[in-house]
Amino acid sequence: MSIDYHIILDVIKSTLTITYLVMMMMIFIEFINVNSSGKLLTSLQNRPFLQIIFASLLGLIPGCIGGFTIVSLFTHRLLSFGALVAGMICTHGDEAFVIFAYSPKIFLILSLILLIVGTVTGVLTDLFFKHKKLKRDNHFFEIHEDVHIHTKNHLLLKNITRTSFQRIFLIICLLLYIIAILTGVFSHQHGGLPTIGEVHHHHHHSIFSWENILFLTLALLTLFIVAFSSEHFLQSHLWKHVIKKHLLKVLLWTFAVLLLLKFSYQLFDIEAFIKNNQWTTFLLILLAVLIGIIPESGPHLIFVILFFNGSIPFSILLSSSIVQDGHGALPLLASSRSNFFLMKAISVLVGLCVGLLGFFLGF
Predict the structure, then answer these.
(1) Looking at the 3D structure of the chain, how many domains does it have?
(2) Contact 357/307 with Cβ under 8 angstroms?
């Protein structure tokens, strides 16, 4: 089989578009996280419903920060087990960045549903385990220490004169992204990004569509943060945590999934098969839930891309999002395997129930 280099080029372009957006969102979230205060945590004690709401909102933060914070608070007995479950249901790892990159509207709808499902599940879990003691270790597996202790990062004009390699590299990358948007190289089509399958509706999209304006704004804010942040924040937080730990993984996973799906669509009409075989949806819900048990971001990306290609219904994406929590639960696995698997068992049950409900209701 001859290689179609247009396919490779299309996949590379889509991969770069997604990776840029994911990295910019991570940088922006990291900036907010470092400059926020944790003084409100003491008000959570003896307020289980407030704990559930707080954990659910933390879980909605894209990436690993929310998940790590939830586990830390749980192991320090500041959150109930129901709050832990609620937060992890709302957490869907780095895929949240990708969903936002494809469609901010779908991201908001999915987040709202996860918030409702997580809150209800958290309340029911606390009621069920009200008189049961759960093992909690006295130590916390510090996989992400700087989530809890920060030195505030002040944006100063003089910081841009500290021309380290990392600062120059990030500024150049962001400027190239902005140029690519303005020239139409990175074109945000239906749902925000180019799809892997054929585009079914053809409309002309202006460079200044609302999606492009949103992503240009994000790029400019990120550029501002990179240019004027302190050297400590740039090196310790943006470079060592965001770029070195996440860039290559996001890039390679995205490229691999997109390339696999692109060639799969050339050989096999997945969309037609799913639409003509209703039980395929049922099997995919089971598969999404099982893959969701994996405490890692990456494997779940296939369901995100299949959804935005129109190949799978929303219920499968929702099931996957409910069960999977990226690598946010890794510290819990390290500190208490029993709590990890109990939390996952509840998430799997909820994910299956919600997914099957969607399957029978046809969404």
Answers:
(1) 1
(2) no
